[in-house]
Design a protein that fits this description.
Layout (H helix, E strand, L loop, with lengths): L11 H11 L3 E6 L4 E4 L1 H7 L3 H4 L4 H6 L3 E2 L3 H7 L3 E7 L4 E10 L5 E10 L2 H6 L6 E4 L7 E3 L10 E4 L2 H13 L6 E4 L6 H10 L8 E5 L5 H9 E2 L12 E2 L1 H4 L4 E5 L6 H13 L1 E2 L8 E2 L3 E6 L3 H6 L5 H7 L2 E4 L10 H16 L3 E3 L1 H8 L6 H16 L2 E3 L1 H8 L1 H4 L12 H20 L2 H8 L3 H7 L1
Parallel strand pairs: 8-11, 10-17, 10-18, 11-14, 14-17, 19-20
Antiparallel strand pairs: 1-2, 1-6, 3-4, 4-5, 5-6, 7-9, 12-13, 15-16
Helix pairs in contact: 11-13, 14-16, 15-17, 16-17, 19-20, 20-21
Length: 461
């Protein structure tokens, strides 16, 4: 262990106090188990936590309580080296956090020292560093969602390594400053919902609501009421006191229209009217209601071809396409697969209480996979690998086995159906729908593959 170089007449303890008290960085020191044994005043200010809540606590528990994220301590202990990442505080502030392991002469871990610097993400991206940055998206209690899939796939971070993603993230940061419509495009599972939330959290309206709507997940007969609300007695079954629509709920915040391509054509005119006037008319209402919100739309379909077939309005497209941001598929940014895989493994390990690691050959095997389902598919695969291996080191053989497991277990036998013709057709239809949902990962994607509306699929199921 190297010795400190200091004048002989200076007391080391006084020197340490000066560093702790006057450093512009937040400083936190833990023992080998993660127990916090020292912090400075700057740390308390950066994270807005009283010293009494930190000293004597374990950093793993503090992360679980939402004091900051992600957990850097476990990574430093596992890798046994200095690691720097972008963390986010409870209030949404971006912090450049560096964790340094401190060993004794025998190589045993004694302490972990953390230096935390309040740092603009914009400046980090503009430096053009080749490092991997993990950008946390704040989880806000004000979130209102109508996306059933979100609970199955909720990515709390963006892992940035490729130049293409840095470019799009930098564009998102720039766009977030202005209340201009944004159109996010890219394949299913690439992270469009995550980017929408990221833009909101970096915008002047971050304290307002973030209302997400999956336009393909709402039955046709309910879409207008869900979006625009309705007045008392507007239709049979309407709420007695009327209902506020999702667009109105996004006032002073951000409205995220996911799967915008699935919005019924007849309602595209009404949405266009709102975008042009910032006013909505509830179903059954005659008085306009002003709504001021930033609109972000997303789609994995080719809107140009839809406009050619008159299934999507050109005027609505040009109104939504204020700033286009296209997210590349995961197979085009393979360098991000290993850090993403490690991130998902840590998330699931914490959730399920299973400690595991990815062997280098397993990470390389993951890099070679096509990932047609993109980030969502990778997330599901890591979860599967963690559970079936039960922890420990995940090897290349595990990845190979469980990426081909379903195809190996698929029977070539033709199913036997019994009953009348209509009963057998119904059984075949049910099997086909379920198989398509399993392969595509969602009802929305399955509906597109089968050429029916998602509400029709739900009804048949």
């Amino acid at each position: 262990m190297s010795e400190l170089t200091i004048l002989p007449n200076i007391d080391v303890s006084d020197f340490a106090k000066l560093i702790l008290n006057y450093s512009t960085d937040g400083i936190l020191l833990t023992d080998a188990t993660g127990l916090v044994i020292a912090i400075n005043l700057r740390f308390s200010k950066i994270f807005q936590i009283p010293p009494s809540k930190v000293l004597g606590a374990n950093v793993v528990e503090l992360v679980k309580q939402g004091a900051w994220s992600p957990n850097l301590f476990q990574r430093v202990v596992q890798k046994k080296k200095t690691i720097s990442i972008i963390q986010t505080t409870r209030s949404g502030k971006s912090i450049l956090a560096t964790g340094t392991p401190i060993f004794d002469d025998d190589g045993e871990l004694l302490y972990v020292l953390f230096n935390d610097r309040d740092m603009s993400l914009q400046s980090v991206l503009e430096k053009g560093s080749s490092k991997t940055f993990e950008v946390n998206i704040k989880a806000d209690a004000k979130v209102e969602q109508f996306i059933p899939e979100t609970r199955q796939y909720k990515l709390s971070q963006i892992v940035v390594k490729s130049d293409s993603m840095k470019k799009q993230l930098n564009l998102a940061l720039q766009v977030a400053k202005f209340p201009i419509p944004v159109l996010l495009t890219g394949e299913s599972g690439v992270g469009k919902s995550m980017f929408a939330r990221f833009i909101h959290d970096r915008s002047p309206r971050k304290e307002g609501p973030f209302v997400a709507i999956n336009c393909g997940a709402i039955p046709d007969q309910l879409v207008e009421s869900e979006l625009f609300g309705h007045t008392k007695g507007a239709f049979t079954g309407a709420s007695a006191g009327g209902k506020k629509g999702r667009i109105q709920a996004a006032d002073k915040g951000t409205l995220f229209l996911d799967e915008i391509s699935e919005l019924p054509y007849i309602l595209q005119v009404k949405l266009l009217q709102f975008l042009e006037t910032n006013q909505i008319y509830p179903v059954g209402g005659t008085n306009p209601i002003p709504v001021d919100c930033t609109v972000i739309a997303a789609t994995n379909r080719d809107l140009a071809s839809m406009m050619a077939t008159k299934s999507f309005r050109e005027d609505l497209y040009f109104r939504l396409n204020g700033i286009p941001i296209e997210l590349p598929p995961l197979r085009e940014r393979k360098d991000e697969i290993p850090p993403l895989a490690r991130f998902f493994l840590e998330q699931y390990s914490t959730r399920y209480g299973i400690m595991a690691s990815l062997a280098p050959d397993a990470l390389e095997e993951l890099r070679q996979l096509p990932f047609k389902g993109n980030v969502r598919e990778l997330s599901h695969l890591i979860q599967r690998l963690l559970i079936v291996t039960g922890g420990g080191e995940i090897l290349k053989a595990h990845v190979q086995e469980w990426t081909t497991h379903e195809s190996k277990g698929t029977s070539d036998l033709v199913p036997v159906y019994r009953g009348t013709l209509s009963q057998q057709i119904s059984q075949f239809e049910k099997d086909l729908i379920r198989k398509t949902i399993e392969e595509s990962g969602s009802q929305v994607e399955a509906a597109k593959i089968l050429g029916v509306h998602q509400s029709t699929l739900s009804r048949k199921l």
